[in-house]
Write a structure and sequence with these properties.
Elements: E1 6-7, H1 9-21, H2 27-45, E2 54-55, E3 61-62, E4 73-77, H3 81-95, E5 100-104, H4 113-128, E6 133-136, H5 143-149, E7 156-160, H6 174-182, E8 187-191, E9 213-217, E10 220-221, H7 227-233, E11 235-239, H8 245-252
Parallel strand pairs: 1-10, 4-5, 4-7, 5-6, 7-8, 8-9, 9-11
Antiparallel strand pairs: 2-3
Helix pairs in contact: 1-8, 2-3, 3-4
Bound molecules: ligand LP7C6HRI and potassium ion.
């Protein structure tokens, strides 16, 4: 039985490109599969995450987070498609009644493409239909205080800051956010890769998110096999984004 492939950053980006340009996938389908797959993986990994359903005046259940109730999952989002995966994850957690909050670390006006589409969907849900709270922290000055204020007793913090689009060590404010995340009691889930970890060399920048669980999309990454990467990855789960195996094999050769 062949070992499942581990891709380089470049190969991972080729999956997206070929799936969209040659197979006709919409990027939104790939992103939905990524975010929903990460949601299902997280709920399997941590059975203690439970519905925080509240009843409204009519007695029907809503998933709106009561102000005094802290979110069980807090998702820190950057501005690329890794953030887009975080927006999709937030929506699916909320559908399952898991109290969720999204913290934006980049100004919403910098969002583009599929990430912007999923941000708009999330904003619409949170306004109209008891979706997760979406809080813009990108303008604040006392960053750590704002993060503390919005995180309370969260069980999980999610790293949706940077994925395969990262170049070099995480720049401000992501570096401060990573140090803050690594100092929290909560467990940490990294989407696609822990921000700060070079997915080709496996070399962790200072700082790098210290994940308990990494949900990586389509295939594992070559850098994940390096010894210095393991303490930042936690358990690694490969999440299918729905592209045919033939495409993965074609890129592997
Ligand atoms: N591989 C797949 O088939 C799929 C991948 N998905 C997700 O998309 C990301 C890659 O998204 P991309 O927009 O290319 O990049 P990022 O989200 O990683 O962010 C890039 C963004 O951040 C800025 N930036 C780059 N380097 C740094 C840095 N060192 N410090 C601060 N900011 C930085 C840069 O300007 C960009 O704007 C992939 O990882 C998956 O999560 C799809 O959603 C599903 C299919
Ligand atoms: K990430």
């Amino acid at each position: 039985m062949n070992e499942p492939p581990a891709f380089t950053r470049e190969q991972s980006r080729r999956v997206d490109e070929i799936a969209i340009n040659e197979y006709g996938f919409s990027g939104l389908v790939l992103m939905e599969n990524a975010g929903r797959g990460a949601c299902e993986t997280l709920l399997e990994f941590d059975a203690s995450l439970r519905k925080t359903l509240l009843t409204d005046m009519t007695g029907s259940e809503t998933s709106r987070l009561a102000p005094e109730l802290d979110a069980q999952v807090v998702i820190l989002c950057g501005k690329g498609n890794n953030a887009g995966d975080g927006f999709v994850l937030a929506r699916h957690l909320s559908i399952r009644g898991i109290a969720t909050k999204v913290l934006l670390l980049a100004p919403p006006h910098e969002l583009r493409g599929d990430a912007l589409t999923n941000y708009a969907i999330l904003k619409h849900s949170s306004l109209k239909h008891a979706g997760p709270a979406v809080i813009d922290l990108s303008q604040g000055d006392d960053f750590a205080k704002a993060l503390d204020q919005h995180t309370g007793s969260a069980k999980w913090l999610v790293d949706a800051l940077l994925g395969t689009g990262a170049t070099g060590a995480p720049r401000a404010p992501y570096d401060k956010a990573i140090r803050w995340m690594n100092a929290q009691e909560a467990k940490r889930l990294a989407l696609d890769l822990p921000t700060g970890l070079d997915c080709d060399s496996g070399i962790p920048a200072d700082p790098t998110v210290r994940a308990d669980l990494t949900c990586t999309f389509a295939t594992s990454k070559v850098g994940f096999q390096k010894r210095q990467a393991t303490e930042f990855l936690g358990e690694v789960c490969v999440v299918s984004i729905g592209v045919p195996q033939g495409l993965i094999e074609a890129i592997s050769t």
